[in-house]
Amino acid sequence: TLFRSRIMFFARRIAVFPHAKFCITAIHEAFGIAAAVSKRPFVVLSQPQTCALRSFSSIVGLKVENGGVVKAVGDLYKIAGVNRENGMSSETKARVTELVNIISERKSFLSNMSVGKVAWSLATLNYRQDALLTALRQQSEQHINDFTPVSLAWFVWALSKYNLLSATVLDATAQYVMEHIARFSSSELSLILIAFQRANYVHPQCLSAVTARARALDFHPRSFCSILWCVTELNFFDHLFVEKCGRCVSSMRQELSRRDLMKTLTGLSKTAVMYLSQSHNFTTTSPSETSATISETISTTFFLNAAFERLHRSVVAKLCTLSPFEVSSAATSFSRAAMKYPDLMNQIAARFIQTPDEFNEQSIVNLTWAFARLNMRHEGLLEAVRQCILSRRGQWTHQGIAVLLWSFVVLQEYRKDAFETLLRLAPTSADHRGKEVIMLYQVHTALQVDAPADCRPLTSYLQPFMADIQRRPHILPSHFGSKHNPVSFTHQSVSKVLDSCGIAHVNEFIQGAFIVDIALPEKRIAIEIVGPGGYTRNTKEPLGSTLFKRRILSRLGWRLSVIENLHFFETQTERRKHIMDQLVATISELSPHVSPP
């Protein structure tokens, strides 16, 4: 108590003489001594304060009993560096346990750098110590600003691995990153973003600062892969960062490791999907702004395609070394990004046909979906999938069943035995994710109008599911609304032209499990506005879902008129002319007496 009163007296003297900066150091030293004497931490000491504590305590004759905690931290850090790849032997694990006990007893004496080292070492060694990590987090929550970038990156990365991050630490970390972004290296930024991704923590300002920093750095491929993957997993979109990603991947000279290759492919495919959803919907009216936007889009598209070409070559070269999960992930990533490489997909199919037992159910589902999305019918793969379905009865999830059935009808693969096996396991209610409900509804429609006669009775298996939808008619529009993209600029333009011609129409007309872009229900005429999202990016071929929708609408009695919007134009005038040229024939067919504007 006497010592604390002297500290407060000293603090009041500092308020009177603020120019005496040495007094501030003295106060930190005094707090450190108080912590040593009372065995309770008053502050979390930084490295300089710890050194000052030792020298100051020796002057006043006090002995700090840190019990070798600094040496224990150093030994633990060395063990983690040596055993990070090979794991720990029983002797090493016993030594780690001994060091952790020492650190746990004297954790209040740890500097911020030591806190980061301890957390990183435990996470790297997969030596879970929730109690110690939670205590270190609570001890450090109010002192995040005292960390260095590397110690903070280690600390939050380790906490995120065991789901121990708190909102306080996340918010303080994001603020620290924004204020000191220039001090962070690429590897430190990647660790921070991995922590954010694990915690599903989205801070737009912080992510914007990180991507801006990444654009300015020439960083290591591993760090780049992690940043790209985390940013896309957090659904954050930065147009300039996308172009930087494409440039970096396409120009990489060294081969990526398997892990980095899969991370890059997954991240880039999701980036391409996000980019594609935003790049073809220009609504500006200023010619200069539109020209600049289109120019940027053309550049970004070029580098993204070049990046996928580079990844395509890498996956082909490493395909024999990839695990079954990685093989299916590669197929899914390329198909999600709508990049069609027949040579790669045929090799993937051959790998699956040779060793189907090595692929689990989810990998089989992903592979089948990838081929269906790219509209690639591979007889050998479909037969192997059929055999897996028949031999693994009862092992398929509702989501997997919906995807497999949908993939089969897209590829017109109506094998009665495989279909009946899956339909027996199909859900009986619509209480599922929107995508599964839409897929099963489309399967039901395809079985009615597209399947061979011997398969059409199989719709009876889906009657309980369809009855549930009919009892709740609101459920289908809600699923459409959660997934359907906003009306595009091209769609709006076509609709306005039809209005000016006096042609009555309905936008976003729901026909069963499908949405007709522009419909004339009385005449059973459907106008489909197909943008780049309906075609493969590199070969400009219709995707499986695009052809499937056209086929089913035709079987349902609709006359289709397709307006394609696949190209970029320097001005809005050229863009409108391109649309009008395709629309003239449609208007003439709908109302021959009307002259298009």
Summarize the structure in words:
The chain is mainly α and 597 residues long. The chain has 27 helices and four strands. The protein has helices at 2-16, 21-38, 47-60, 69-83, 90-105, 112-124, 130-140, 149-161, 167-179, 186-199, 204-216, 221-233, 239-251, 258-279, 287-318, 324-336, 342-354, 361-373, 379-391, 398-410, 416-424, 434-449, 463-471, 475-483, 489-500, 544-555, 572-590, and strands at residues 506-511, 514-520, 525-530, 559-564. A four-stranded mixed β-sheet has the order 1-2-3-4, with helices on both faces. Helix 2 (21-38) packs across helix 3 (47-60) and helix 20 (398-410) packs across helix 22. The longest helix has 32 residues, at 287-318. The protein is globular, with a radius of gyration of 31 Å.
Arrangement of strands in the largest sheet: 1-2-3-4
Given helix and strand content, the structural type is mainly alpha
Globally, the shape reads: globular
- Note the total helix count: 27
Calculate the terminal CA-CA distance, rounded to whole Å. Answer: 90 Å
Work out the helicity level. Answer: 55-70%
Percent range for β-strand residues:
under 5%
What is the strand tally? 4
Flag low-confidence runs: 16-22, 39-49, 53-67, 280-292
Seen as an oligomer or otherwise, the chain set is: single chain
Write down the overall mean pLDDT: 79
Rg for CA atoms = 31 Å
